[in-house]
Amino acid sequence: MQGSEPDKPAGDACLQLPADLGIESAVNLRDQLLSHVYDPRPLSVDGSQIARLHTAALQLLLMFWNERRRGGLSTAWRAPNQMLVEAAAMLGLEQSLQLKGAVA
């Protein structure tokens, strides 16, 4: 689904992840990620507010990251918190999610 918006302003975009990334919020996270997956602007993903994190959210983030990578789109973390970094490491996703060595 390539839902890019033709009138987006130039410059970097930032995606603020919500504090609750539990299984109950997976559909909302999916929708939030889909709205940015084909955005051609460089994208910063802010994970500083995450307070609850479920494996389903990490799976969605991984699919999002991989799709942007395949499209040659720039994606980087802005302030990933310790919970996110540790959860990704526990599941062996820190390299795929570009969190390896991230300073939380």
TrEMBL record:
Pfam families: STAS_2
UniProt-listed InterPro entries: MlaB-like_STAS, MlaB_ABC_Transporter, STAS_dom_sf
Lineage top rank: taxon: Bacteria
Domain MlaB-like STAS: 15-94
Name the UniProt record assigns to this protein: STAS domain-containing protein
Upper classification of the organism: Bacteria, Pseudomonadati, Pseudomonadota, Gammaproteobacteria, Nevskiales
